[in-house]
Amino acid sequence: QMADPFLYNTGERSKYGCLGHEVQIEHIKAYVCRPSFFTDKAVIVIHDIFGWLFPDIRYIVDLIAGHGYTTICPDFFKGTDPWKTTDHWADFADWMKHHDPMKVDKEADVVLKYLQEQCSATKIGIVGFSWGGMAAHHLMLKNPQLAAGVSLYGSIIRDSEERYNLLNPTFFIFGEKDHTISLNQITLLEEKLNQYCKVAYKIKVYPGQVHGFAQLKPEDMKPDDKPYIEEARKDMMDWIQMFI
């Protein structure tokens, strides 16, 4: 029996009334939220295992849009089932085989084209959470069109040298008490980035925080965690605003 790595019950979430709308882009559905004024700046948000419909991720999209970015969360699972709170962790490895965070390039290209052609975006960044943090890390190694990235608690999967040669500035956010990612792995990431990375990068570990901490809506936050969640989100936005 594998322990549930999230330590919070994703079933007990307050409802969220979204500010954006859904669009169909080629073979992908996406949730989009735009600021009230014109901008040529955009951010792609990559969801976690719970998918693009999950209220927490839509809240994040709206939050980023509120800072003046056209913000979009595409369904990177392409209509296949996200992980559900009722699923068994014993089946997780098998589920992951069919939901590979390293196989998102085609969808990212479709979304980039949409942002450039339909939303007049000239500067585009990416933010990913958990599964999406892995996907964001991957895309920051592969896609020079992404001007900056933030990877939040994406597992550090493979220890190969090309994993550290980031194309553009990338910020890695972790929780100190995330038992899916060890502090040793984070130290190794730092050493390797120091060795191979030729662009700006940053790694920050937030005290006492578990996996998934940074995407909670205000009413779902525990008072002790709130300052760290707010700090992580401010740091995330500061990084995006520095480069985009």
TrEMBL record:
Any one annotated GO CC term: cytosol
Residue ranges constituting the Dienelactone hydrolase domain according to the UniProt record: 28-242
Pfam families: DLH
Principal location: cytoplasm
GO function terms (MF aspect): hydrolase activity
Location relative to the cell: Cytoplasm, Cytosol
Family under the similarity heading: Belongs to the dienelactone hydrolase family.
Entry protein name: Carboxymethylenebutenolidase homolog
